[in-house]
């Protein structure tokens, strides 16, 4: 079983589409192990996205991710990393396949509705960034 971290980003929370996104995730066969709404601090957003700290979009990304509450969700499934990336679609919603979460709900390449882990290793690390083992059920 693989784990992946979903973050429903501030743009999607502002649009009140959290319920639709969570239902799509459940319909795709993912198990929700933990779920919590949070308003990320600047330090949390900087640390979470530290892999991108040299990128030109880093500062704006941190500002966006702290602009309102998010929903953090720890997910588990066989092949979770690849299956979840397929479900959410490309980073840029203009390039995302029809029916994907980002095609349906993203505004643009920055405000793209959801986060997903990019590897098995990072899935474990990112779930651990927001949840202790004791907080995860199932
Ligand atoms: P993904 O979230 O699909 O794994 P990345 O890890 O490359 O994408 O980027 C992390 C996040 O940074 C994206 O989800 C998006 O919010 C933002 N981002 C990525 N590329 C750009 C860009 N070219 N311009 C603005 N924001 C971007
Ligand atoms: Mg990424």
Helical fraction equals: 25-40%
Structural class: alpha+beta
Number of domains: 1
Just name the CATH architecture.
2-Layer Sandwich
Ligand roster:
adenosine-5'-diphosphate, magnesium ion
Distance between the termini: 12 Å
Please state the CA-atom Rg, rounded to the nearest Å: 14 Å
What is the percentage of strand-forming residues?
Answer: 15-25%
Q: Detail the poorly predicted runs.
A: none
CATH level 4 superfamily: Nucleoside diphosphate kinase-like domain
Number of helices: 7
CATH topology, what is it called?
Alpha-Beta Plaits
Strand arrangement across the biggest beta sheet: 2-3-1-4
Order of helices and strands: EHHEHHEHHEH
- Mean pLDDT comes to 98
CATH class annotation:
Alpha Beta
Main beta-sheet strand count, sense and barrel state: 4 strands, antiparallel
| Outline | globular
What's a quick, concise take on this entry?
This protein has 138 residues and is α+β, with helices and mostly antiparallel strands.
Keyword list:
single chain; 138 residues; Alpha-Beta Plaits; globular; binds magnesium ion
């Amino acid at each position: 079983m693989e784990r992946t971290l979903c973050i429903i980003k501030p743009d999607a929370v502002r649009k009140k589409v959290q319920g639709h996104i969570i239902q799509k995730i459940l319909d795709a066969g993912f198990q929700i192990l933990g779920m919590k709404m949070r308003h990320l601090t600047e330090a949390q957003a900087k640390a979470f996205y530290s892999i991108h700290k040299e990128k030109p979009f880093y500062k704006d990304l941190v500002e966006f991710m702290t602009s309102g509450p998010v929903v953090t969700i720890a997910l588990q499934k066989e092949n979770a990393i690849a299956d979840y990336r397929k479900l959410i679609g490309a980073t840029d919603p203009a390039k995302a396949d029809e029916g994907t979460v980002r095609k349906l709900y993203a505004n643009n390449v920055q405000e793209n509705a959801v986060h997903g882990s990019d590897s098995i290793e990072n899935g474990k690390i990112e779930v651990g960034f927001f949840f202790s083992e004791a907080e995860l059920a199932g």
